[in-house]
Amino acid sequence: LWTSFLMMIINAVMGLVTAYVLVRYSFPGKQLLNAIVDLPLAIPTLVTGVMLVMLYGPQETLGRFLSEEIGLQVIFASPGIVVALLFISYPFVVRAVQPVLQDLDQSQERAAATLGASSWRTFRKVVLPALVLPIVSGSLLAFSRAVGEFGAVVIVAGNIPLKTQTAAVYVLGSVESENRLGASAVSILLIAISLLVLLLANGLQKLWGSR
Hints:
By secondary structure, the protein is an all-alpha fold. Helices cover 80% and strands 0% of the residues. It contains 11 helices and no strands. The longest helix has 31 residues.
């Protein structure tokens, strides 16, 4: 839960920045970046886990540098779970914010600039309020997706009890050890959490539609 929540906060900021860049700026490779955003939805999550191990593994250059020079272990630790969840959930906020940002009338932004407002003040006072609900809605969808993630997490987490064992991985371990009661209990909890989050996200989307 806490790794999914941390991912949700980071993803809200990264998704907003990415959507803003894609909508408001033109640059070489823009279409490629726009396509890459959806890449996590197109590839198996197990492949995502393998890619992260090849990049941040303790025997790889980057992973060894982070471990030896900074003291940060990514694979088989909580940071690896957060990175994996970030990758698989990245498109949700971007695709929730992007169409709303495209439909915004920029006349208010130009008026604010004419009145002497800085770019940051214009964004904070004019643009951001219109994007709050899409950001929250997309972030909740990303959280719901991340809570039950199995494929990428089981590769990078290492399934260490009380350290990197996530709920979905615990369910697999319980099934393999014939602990059906434990697997059922955690599965029901995951379903309940995801259902509540999705209901909240749908409610926010309806609120946005009515506004």
